[in-house]
Design a protein that fits this description.
This protein is an alpha/beta fold and 259 residues long. It has a single domain, classed as Spore Coat Polysaccharide Biosynthesis Protein SpsA, Chain A (Alpha-Beta Complex). It is built from 8 helices and 9 strands. It starts with a strand and ends with a helix.
Length: 259
């Protein structure tokens, strides 16, 4: 699994402990630091010493290459058959990996897996509700993702050997670009209808990179344009999806102006 970090001293311990507390531990954890200037690196190193059985390795980048490139770096350093992603300011339910692995075993021909998440607005993790069963599953195609992104990055597991990667030239909506490029091959995303990840900010528009709403919007449009140029979507689909994305962006701006 991969965690990218950048100046995450205030949140990285919470993220790492949520991995350590998994009922099924990952075989490998790669933390990729994007040239942090705070104490993030030291905290990760201390955590690695305190939890040697977690098989944690730290990659220190000399410059900030963006979240997508950092994830790609960690992805390439992993030797496991599956890659899970967690952001340094989010955390997982203790049974997240156990439940998701059950689903993956049931879907040997699928390559993209996710689940729902819970937004924690006050910064304090909710009491973990017992979660032992898979529950309901939903299957989403590329067309479903053109309506809206159906998974958040910290919920996703992909098969390591797929050829797609996060676009190296994108700092915004790079996750949406990757998911849609995978689904463009006619595949489906398998999504568990249970919240197994905690986001400590809204998924779009509150803080961090997501707060830069215009750049996120432009990133989504670039991903859509790439799908059109590769003939993954038809011209009518492109026109409809383009208009819908612009309408959603305007709605977000209006909602934000009333906050």
């Amino acid at each position: 699994m991969v965690i990218p970090t950048y100046n995450s001293a205030g949140t990285i311990d919470r993220a790492l402990r949520s991995v350590l507390n998994q009922s099924v531990l990952p075989n490998q954890l790669v933390v990729v630091d994007n040239a942090s200037t705070d104490t993030t690196i030291g905290l990760v190193e201390q955590f690695a010493v305190s939890a040697p059985h977690l098989n944690l390795s730290l990659i220190k980048l000399e410059m900030n290459v963006g979240p997508g490139n950092a994830r790609n770096t960690g992805w390439d350093a992993c030797h496991t058959s599956l890659i899970a992603f967690l952001d340094s300011d989010d955390s997982w339910h203790p049974n997240k990996l156990e439940i998701q692995l059950k689903v993956i075993r049931q879907h040997p021909d699928h390559v993209l897996f996710g689940h729902r998440y819970t937004v924690v607005n006050n910064g304090v993790a909710l009491a973990h509700r017992p979660q032992n069963s898979i529950g309901g599953l939903r299957y989403f195609t590329l067309r479903d993702f053109l309506i809206r992104n159906r998974v958040s990055t910290p919920t996703v597991i992909v098969r390591r050997t797929i050829p797609q990667r996060f676009p190296g030239d994108a700092w915004f909506a790079e996750d949406f670009a990757l998911w849609t490029s995978i689904l463009a091959e006619g595949k489906q995303a398998v999504v568990i209808d249970a919240a197994l990840t905690y986001l400590y900010k809204t998924a779009y528009g509150q803080s961090g990179l997501s707060a830069r709403m215009s750049e996120m919007h432009q990133g989504e449009l670039r991903a859509l344009r790439s799908l059109y140029l590769s003939k993954a979507v038809t011209q009518p689909e492109y026109v409809l999806a383009n208009g819908w994305m612009r309408l959603k962006y305007l709605r977000r701006l209006v909602r934000r102006s009333h906050v």
